[in-house]
Amino acid sequence: MTNADFLISIITPYYRTLKETKELAEVLVPQLDEKIEWIIIDDGCHEQELDKIQAKIIHLEENSGGGSVPRNVGLDAARGEYILFIDSDDGVAADYIQTIKEKISQEDFDYCYFGWESPHFHVMIEEEPPFWNNSIWNCIYKRELIGDNRFDPALQIGEDEQFNIQVRHGKRANILKILYYYHDTPDSLMKRGSR
Question: What's the CATH fold of domain 6-191?
Fold first, then answer.
C-alpha cells in the first residue's frame, strides 16, 4: 500500500449512543482484518465502555458541540489509503467491508458512492446522490484526495456539504448496493445542534 499502513480507515464520531454503537460493533467488528482500522472519537462523553470495542478509541476531553472536530481528529489519526465515515448511531450491511474491498481491487477511483436506506428512504446512487443528500457516510474517499481538507468546526449545519464540495473531485465510481443504514435517533449528529 502506498504511503498507508492500512487499506481502509473508518472514522466514527461518538456522542451518547452507546447502545447503537455496540450494535454497530456487532456487525462491523467481525468484518475487520489487518488491513482495516476503525477509529472511534469519543466527543467529551468519557465513555469507558467504548474501550471494550475492537477499535482505536480517542477520548476528547471536552464536547465539541458537533461532528466536525471529532471527524477532523479521526482524519488526522487515520493511516488508511481510503477513508470511510460511519456515524455512531447508524448501521452497516454484513458485507460492508467485503463489498468495498472488492470494489477497490476491481476499479481505480478517487471517490465511490454506495446505496443506503433509512426508515423513510431507499437510495441507490447510480450517478450522483439526490440533491438533498450531502452526507459523507455514503461514500468511499481516497485519503490522497482529502489531503489537508477538513470539516469546518464553525458550521453546525452543512459541514458535510462543504467538505464534499472540497474533496469530491476526480474519478467517480458507484456501488449499486445498499451498504449503509441511517437511523434517525434523538442524539444523532444531525440533532445535536450546539449542545
Answer: Spore Coat Polysaccharide Biosynthesis Protein SpsA; Chain A (3.90.550)
